[in-house]
Amino acid sequence: MRNLSRLLSLSGAEMLFLARCVVVVAAVRLGLTLFSFNRVRRLVTRLDAREVASVADLRRVAWGVAAAARLVPYASCLTQALSGQYLLARGGKASNIRIGIEQNTGAELKAHAWLMSGSHIVLGGSLAGFAHLVDHGQ
Q: Is 127 within 8 Å of 114 (Cβ atoms)?
């Protein structure tokens, strides 16, 4: 009930953006199910994005993708990072995806993905406790 009242309190522009985020997150999730990461990444990064995103742009994308991910089953950190990168790139804003592995997990390997824009973490939470593996930029 609380989520419904929160949804109804959104402006028309916010609802439209959230709907767009749900479509993008669902499409990326489906893409990662059917195709390789590299193929999906190529589709996401084909847009020319070179501008620096404002903090407001980053917050809006973080909010939209995180909210959409709660509605799309199995929307992993990688799904969210790719979705956010696509949404930023549509506005000409540059970003990159950072992939790392959790340190001190013993025999179990745990990977995580973040969406970064400049020095800002847009999606994925803290980098603490993870070893950096690779960045996938625009």
A: yes
Whether the model pTM is above 0.85: yes
- Starting at the edge strand found earlier in the chain, the sheet holding 111-117 runs 120-123, 111-117, 96-102, 130-136
Contact 86, 44 (CB under 8 A): yes
Report pLDDT for 112. Answer: 94
Number of Cβ within 10 Å of residue 106's Cβ equals 5
**Grouped pLDDT means (10 residues each) for the chain, 138 residues:** 65 91 97 94 83 94 96 96 95 93 81 94 93 81
Query: 82 near 28, Cβ under 8 Å?
Result: yes
d(CA 133, CA 5): 41
Q: Element (H or E) spanning 20, and its range?
A: helix 12-34
User: 115: helix, coil or strand?
Assistant: strand
Amino acid found at 123: L
